Amino acid sequence: MTGSAPVPAQPPPERLGLLAAVIGPFACGYFLSYLLRNVNAVISPDLVRIFRLDASDLGLLTSVYFLTFALFQPLLGVLLDRYGPRRVEGVLLMVAAAGSLLFAWSGGALLLILGRALIGLGVSACLMAGLQANALWFARHRLAGLNGWVLAAGGVGALFSTTPVEWALRWVDWRVLFTLFAAAFAATSALIFALVPERRAPATGASLAGQFKGFRQVARSREFWRIAPLGMLSQSAFMALQGLWAAGWMHDVALQDRGAIAYHLLLAAAGMVAGHLTMGNLASRLGRAGIAPSYVVGVGVGGAILVHAALVFGYTGMQPLLWLLFGFTGTAGTVNFAILTHAFPVSMAGRATTALNLLIFVASFLVQWGVGIIVNQYPAGDGRYAPEGYALAFGVTTVLQVLGLVWFFRRMPRRG
C-alpha cells in the first residue's frame, strides 16, 4: 500500500459501467457480511446441541462478531482515508475467509468464538468501504439513494441467511456451509481487486498518527453527537434481534418450529431489502426538495419502536406482517450515514462513518449478549426460556430507542 493520490474536485459523470464496477463488488461483500452476521439464528440449534451452549453462551458466541468488528473501526477509518476502499476491503475479506474456515472445522466453543471473531474483523470494512467508494465517485446529492443499493445487498444477505440456509442444511451440514462461505469471501476479494477502479481522497500530507487526530474533529462535531445515540440504540436493537433473538422469541414465545422461524426471518429480510431501497431513495428525493432526511429517520425509527413494543407484549398475531414491518422499519437508522457524510469533507468520510459504526457495533455486542444474559435468568425447561425474560430484555431496548429518538430531534438544527 502507498499513500493517497489526489482525485479531481468533482466526481466524474455517472455511467452504468462505473456504477456496476464501484457498487457491485462492494455490494457482494456486504451481502456476505450480513449473511454471516445472521446465519447463527438458523444454525444455533445445531451449535447448542453439539457444544452444549446456554442462552448466555450463545449470545456471547454470536455477538463477538460485533465486538471485533467494532474495535477495528478507528484503524479502519484511517486506513480507508489513507489507502482507499479497494485495497482495504480486498485484504480484509481474506481474513474473513480464514475465520470462516476456522469456524467450520473447530472442535470446541473457544475455537468457534475465535473463528467468529475473525469473521467480524474480516467483514468490518464491507459497508464502510462501499459508502466511502460512493462518496469518492458520485455526487453527494445521490449518496443516500446509492448507499441504499449497497445496504439492500445486505438485506439480500439477511434473506439468504434464513430459509435458503435452512434448506441448504437438509443437504450439507453447517461445517460444509461455512467452508463454502470461505470460498465466497476469497472470490469476492478477487472481484474487488479485478473490477473496482482505484480512487482515493486528496493527499493531506499527514502521517498515519496525524490522521488518527482527525477523530478529534469528529468527536467535536455537534451533528455527530446528535446522530450517534439514535444510531447506536436503533441499529443495535435491530441487529441483535434480527441476528439471533428474534428466532429465540419465535421459538419460545410464539412456539414456532424451525421452518416457520426461517420463513418469518425471510420476510424480515425481504422487508429489510425493501426498506433500504425505499428509505435511501426517499431521503435523496426529499433532500432535493429541501426536506431534511432526518424526518425519514424519525418516522422509520418510530415505526420500529411500535413493532418492538408488540414483541415486548408478546403479540403473536399477524406474524408475517409483523416481521415484514420489523425488517422494513429497522433500516431507517442507516440513513444517518448519508446525513453524517454531508457534515464532513470527503477526506474525512472514512473516519466519520467508522466512528459512528464503532459505536453502533459496540452497542450491538452489548445488546446481543445482554439480551442473552437477561433471558437466561428465566428458564422454562426443555431448552426454552420464559416470555417474561424476552419481555424484560426487549422492553429495555425499546425504551432506549425512544430516548434516542427524543434526543435526535431535540438536537436537530433549526432552519432560519
Question: What is the element layout, followed by pairings?
Answer:
Elements: H1 16-38, H2 40-51, H3 55-71, H4 73-83, H5 85-104, H6 109-122, H7 126-137, H8 143-160, H9 163-168, H10 174-195, H11 208-212, H12 214-219, H13 222-252, H14 258-288, H15 294-312, H16 319-329, H17 335-342, H18 349-375, E1 379-381, E2 384-385, H19 387-410
- The side-by-side strand order for the widest beta sheet comes to 1-2
Contiguous uncertain segments of 5+ residues: 1-13
CATH C-level category: Mainly Alpha
State the CATH topology.
Answer: Growth Hormone, Chain: A
Q: Could you say which structural class the secondary elements and strand pairing correspond to?
A: mainly alpha
SS strand fraction: under 5%
Question: DSSP helix count?
Answer: 19
Task: Write down the overall mean pLDDT.
Answer: 84
Q: Which percent range fits the helix content?
A: over 70%
Count of domains: 1
CATH architecture: Up-down Bundle
H/E element order: HHHHHHHHHHHHHHHHHHEEH
N-end to C-end Cα span: 46 Å
Main sheet?
A: 2 strands, antiparallel
Radius of gyration: 20 Å
Report on this model:
There is one protein chain. This protein has helices at residues 16-38, 40-51, 55-71, 73-83, 85-104, 109-122, 126-137, 143-160, 163-168, 174-195, 208-212, 214-219, 222-252, 258-288, 294-312, 319-329, 335-342, 349-375, 387-410, and strands at residues 379-381, 384-385. It has 19 helices and 2 strands. The longest helix has 31 residues, at 222-252. Residues 1-13 have low confidence and may be disordered. The chain has a two-stranded antiparallel sheet with strand order 1-2. The termini are far apart. Helix content is 76%, strand content 1%. With 416 residues, it is mainly α. Helix 1 packs across helix 8, helix 5 (85-104) runs antiparallel to helix 10 and helix 7 (126-137) runs antiparallel to helix 18. The radius of gyration is 20 Å and the shape is globular. The protein has one domain: Up-down Bundle (Growth Hormone, Chain: A), CATH 1.20.1250.20.
